[in-house]
Design brief:
About 30% of the residues lie in helices and about 15% in strands. The protein is of the alpha/beta class and about 220 residues long. Strand 1 (about 65-75), helix 4 (about 80-90) and strand 2 form a beta-alpha-beta unit. It comes from Microlunatus ginsengisoli.
Length: about 220
């Protein structure tokens, strides 16, 4: 399965910035000489323009948020890439892919290189990993027994779990969840797109646990 290269992402991400005016900043080893010379058209926040990827990851690691995201990968779901991209936007502690190791990276727009994506071959190994980290596991799906997401305060150290588009969470994964939450809907559709649901749930968590927005 092919996915976007960083050059392709650069073309899709917009104009970015051109070559840095000379003289170049001195004494800052975070800066990439090739980007300074050729311009930076990557899909990164303005504060990271001209930085090397390693420098960006190191900076993100200093401020990782305790939220984690897990996704069941039974159907090679394109939404996984979208979820990873959103997880990067919220600078989560990690993304966990349960089931198949391979997933469609096109929707991630290279953001998987800036965070930890861990693979778990089955639900049992995922549950063991979360237990060892001291994380609550909360499933996000409109299943019987789920409470309205907007009515509850999620734990700070939580792993939000999402199923594949269509089938949703399996019974096995539901059994390891501390609780289930669902996004209230007001129209005729049975469910919200999995990538959209993940974005809503991450934002809901952030409203409780993160400070207000900062300029980028």
């Amino acid at each position: 399965m092919s996915f976007l290269s960083e050059d392709e992402v650069s073309r899709l991400a917009g104009p970015g910035v051109g070559p840095h005016p000379r003289p170049w900043p001195a004494g800052d080893d975070r800066l990439d000489p090739e980007l300074l010379a050729g311009g930076d058209h990557r899909n990164v926040a303005d504060r990271y323009r001209y930085w090397t990827m390693a420098a960006i990851v190191e900076d993100l690691n200093r401020t990782r948020n305790p939220l984690r995201i897990a996704i069941q990968n039974w159907a090679h779901d394109f939404n996984i890439g979208s979820m990873v991209r959103t997880a990067n936007a919220f600078n989560v502690a990690g993304v966990h892919v349960i089931g198949r190791r391979r997933w469609n990276r096109r929707g991630a727009m290279v953001t998987d290189r800036y965070l930890s994506v861990e693979h778990h071959p089955d639900v049992a190994s995922f549950a063991t990993a979360m237990d060892s980290l001291g994380y609550a596991v909360v499933g996000v799906d409109n299943l019987p027994g789920a409470v309205a997401l907007e009515s509850c305060r999620l734990p700070e150290q939580v792993c939000l779990v999402f199923g594949s588009e269509g089938p949703g969470l399996t019974d096995e994964l539901v059994s390891v969840c501390e609780r289930l939450v669902a996004i209230t809907q007001y129209g005729s559709t049975r469910s919200i797109n999995a990538g959209a649901a993940a974005a809503i749930a991450m934002y809901h968590w952030a409203r409780d646990w993160l400070p207000g927005p900062t300029a980028t």
